[in-house]
Amino acid sequence: MVLISKSEEGDSLRELADLKDKQGEIEDDLESIRNWVRTLPVDNEYEIAVSVSKKYNMNITQAKSSLESFPKEYIIKDKKIPVIVKDLKKFRRTLKGEEKAEFSKGIDNLIVAYSDHLTNCIKSIYWLSPYEVPLRQMRYTESDLRKMHSVKDVNSRRGIIDSLCKYWEADLHRGHNYNSEYSTLSKEMTNAKRNFRKCISDIPIHVIKKTVSEQLDDFVLKSVCENQGISARRIYDRLPHKLHRRSSPQIICKVADKLSITNIEGEYYKLPSEIKKDLYSYTAAFIDSDGYITMDRNYNPRIGMVATGNRGKAFVTELHKELGIGKLHLDQKSPQGTRLVNRLNFYSQGDITSLIEKCRSHFRMKGANADILTELIRIKKNHKKASWAKERMGELFKLMKWANHADHVNYDFASDDIDVTNISKYKDNCKMSIMDELETIAKSPQMTVMQIHQRMINEGGNPQPSLRVEERKPNEIQGTIEIDVDMQGDCCLQLKEAFMSEFKTDLDKDPNFKDSNYKLGDWNYQTWLTKYEEALSRESCEDIIETLENSEYFLRFKPMIDAYHSCNFGADSSAKYAMCS
């Protein structure tokens, strides 16, 4: 079974391509703004933002946001990249031979990547990036770059740039010959370095350091993620001295509420960031182990997850928050009279479709169940009135029962009228390809004659002609189109009338059309005739004939085509193309 139709997959790919194009345009616009800002004289943040807003016709808030971007700092297990490199180099001393050489390559790759990160940090400081050459000769860290990025006033910016320019100018004039001038310029370069470091030191540390409130938020969140079910009192007891004397259990409760941490009877729970990064993989694993995918006897799709106890209650609550769909059923009585049961169920077709699309690739046990629901929802949504729909939904119900109970030795499949020997036939009778064709035709603004004919057959119409070719008499075949006509396109007109008559005969064979409210697919009797007639009027006879010659229905319509050819100046005439309407 296929999860989504080819048309839906194509639409998704086109939307993704459009989003990538828009993203590229936005990135190009931001880069053009930064390039233009680098050409401006050094000034304070507000004046630069005013210039950008006038140049690119935006408000000052938007202009500031385009200037204030700075790359995120990389931290692994509370350690910065330079610290990690240092630890790796210490560990390298314990290795020998090829193992040591390979380990060294890994360290070098990490250093190169961090160097690229620092380059991006420098480029993000628009007023400093033109002086990247002398800046590279200075001693600085990522924290120093972050401090310089926070500088807004013009005097501090000019002081930093002045020290860089002095160093750069002295370096350009120093040359390579050691003499008194070389010594003088070297001293100027040293003084410029000192002035640069002094400018950095004068920037207060609090501009990049987190406040006490932010530190408390981080500590509470980390404590809950690492110790699920911890209480506010235990968090308070673990606080470092600096935060402990400025906090209380009541304050921690308020912080937990602010951070949307789930509180179950005084115990705090929160999904770790690792799970949030791969939320649907975790959800799929939850459904595989402690969930279900099924349908009821009315062919309504159902997906659910079950958990017990406070921890289970917290996790289904957190999942409900993160997924944003589904319905929670908390503290339900267990049939066995054990601990209370908590459920997260999905009822609507939209929620179930969205969940399956995102979780399907992660299922390990219930993938077949998900595919059955996908086909069921698609039938109910777009093809419920098709002649084969009800029968197919019954087959899907049996397939779902088989998928859920195949490993149950004592399960009575006969109670659901399921013949286990027909399971493979039910699987092979998948309607996804037929629905692909029908939906492709339905989305087409103008359907051709053959597309309408094919749709009628797929919806359950009679594909047989009103009179088989071999059963027709020669005079009946020739009489389909009158020979005694003028030469102004009547041959083509007569051919189209013959097609219309043949199509009407096929529709009349369906006895259900005696009911005026009956619909074959989405169309009633009159709509089928109207659509077919409109398609005939749009197409030329030669286009219709060319399509038929390449189709499986050619033999069926061959007598009418031969009669059309004979009508046009005889069978050998090449002027018949001019006679098409």
What portion of residues is helical?
55-70%
Beta-strand percentage?
A: 5-15%
Report the end-to-end length measured between terminal Cα atoms.
44 Å
CATH topology of the domain at 275-428: Endonuclease I-creI
Number of strands: 8
Architecture (CATH level 2) name of the domain at 275-428: Roll
What is the topology, as strand order, of the major beta sheet?
Answer: 5-6-8-7
Largest sheet: 4 strands, antiparallel
Shape: extended
Low-confidence stretches: 463-488, 571-581
Please tell me the overall pLDDT: 80
Can you tell me the CATH class of the domain at 275-428?
Alpha Beta
**Radius of gyration over alpha carbons?**
38 Å
CATH-assigned homologous superfamily of the domain at 275-428: Homing endonucleases
Total number of helices:
27
